[in-house]
Amino acid sequence: MQLIIQENYEKASLWAAEYIAGKINSAKNKPFVLGLPTGSSPIGIYQKLINMRQKEKLSFKNVRTFNMDEYVGLPASHPQSYHYFMMDNLFNHVDIDPKHIHILNGMAENLEKECEQYEEAITKEGGIDLFLGGMGRNGHVAFNEPGSSFSSRTRVKTLAEETKVANSRFFDGDSSKVPTLALTVGVGTVMNAREVLIIVNGRHKARALRAVIEDGVNHMWTLSCLQMHPNAIIVCDEDATEELKVETVRYFKDIEKNKAKF
Question: How far apart (Å, rounded) are the C-alpha atoms in residues 158 and 111?
């Protein structure tokens, strides 16, 4: 696992966006399959990717996307659905082919079948090249709450009260308005990606980041699974490192400094 420490959220978002753009551009005319998250963490990355597209430094014509999750019971037109979020924050502003956008349908008549077909669609595309994600303050990724199996696949998941409270800021501050169920890719789905890139920012994520990086692999800190991934990167701001050991921060900063020399 790599830890890339940047001065602030702006610089962390820029680093991640440039990394993703480099991967897309290096694929040239081959399809590039990109896993994407929602929430506040990736917004800075999306803004920078849009800016690159506007400056014609990046094209999404050969990109296929799979989103991590969606609320159950919210139609795509609902302002708080993740379908609406993605269209508003990324897809409406880049040159991606709509048929290459994959987002779970929280209004599906058969939710289990919807999840099975999503996994099948990922397999049909040849798997995910890079999965971008954020991290919840309790160490979860997507809606894989603490205790989720590391072998889990796309499924229906009941949201923890802590997650509902955290997401209530998008629902007039009322956690009772946050859907109780969601569809989410599994930990195993994320781990099957050829690369995983996670952005973490803010002091409120510091405890989880310490557990994910410095403690052992533990399904109660779901994202600690990245310790077992061969190509995992966490990019974070300085605030998120506040609970890491000084030696840990120095180690990862030294690695990046030495890389820059070559």
Answer: 13
Cβ proximity of 116 and 155 under 8 Å: no
Parent domain of 148: 2-259
Number of domains the chain is built from: 1
Q: CA 235: distance to chain centroid?
A: 12
- Residue-wise pLDDT for 95-134, tens only, equals 999 999 999 999 999 999 999 999 999 999 999 999 999 9
What backbone phi and psi angles, to 5 degrees, belong to 258?
-70, -35
pTM: 0.95
Short-list 104, 193, 201, 200, CA closest to 154? 104
Burial class (CB in 10 A: 0-12, 13-18, 19+), 123: exposed
CA atoms within 13 Å, Cβ hemisphere of 246: 0
Q: Using CA atoms, how far apart are residues 232 and 222, in angstroms rounded to an integer? A: 14
pLDDT at residue 73, as a whole number: 95
Backbone phi and psi for residue 74, each to the nearest 5 degrees, phi listed first: -105, 125
- Residue 186: C-alpha distances to residues 111, 130, 194, 203, 238 (Å): 15, 15, 15, 27, 29
State whether residue 234 is helix, strand or coil.
strand
3-state helix, strand, coil in the chain (%, to 5): 45, 20, 40
Q: Which residues contact 260 (CB under 8 A, 6 or more apart)?
A: none
Question: Residue 152 maps to which CATH number?
Answer: 3.40.50.1360
From 83, 87, 94, select the one nearest 51 (Cα to Cα).
94
d(CA 35, CA 21) in angstroms, rounded, equals 14
